[in-house]
Amino acid sequence: MKLKFSLEGLPVPVSSKLVKMLNAEAVKKEESDTASAITFNFRNSQYSPTQGGYHPVEIRVEQHQELWHISYITDFSYVGNGFPELEKEIDFDLRNNRAYIMYLGEVPMPDSEIASFYGVWERNFMSYWEMGCFDQIEISVEH
After folding, report:
1. Per-residue pLDDT for 61 more than 70?
2. What is the pTM of this model?
3. Would you tell me which CATH number, out of the four given (3.10.150.10, 2.40.50.140, 3.40.140.10, 3.10.450.430), belongs to the domain 16-142?
């Protein structure tokens, strides 16, 4: 199944490269043909609070009138001393035009600085995906 994305009017510059990657991952899940929403989880099994590594990332897409829309992109990291927990470090909520950046808080989109920050984040994420850094990719489908 090829997901046809709508990238018009997004508050950040989502690239066609990211869309192609999501399509490449979606075809691996047979039941995605009948989906109304798909959540992609990218993880590196070596990531830990003591060693660091590649942060887990979650991307949710939803179908509206035969087009797919990116709802959110969230990057998680370990936070805390003693008993660290995974928490949102970066969240691009495209559905509500809001971004959250740890230690900065929630900020409205569109904003040229957020758009620029998103571009850097996406290029890094795509580089990690291309290098095979995410050895656990899970796809959850909702009907």
Report:
1. yes
2. 0.95
3. 3.10.450.430
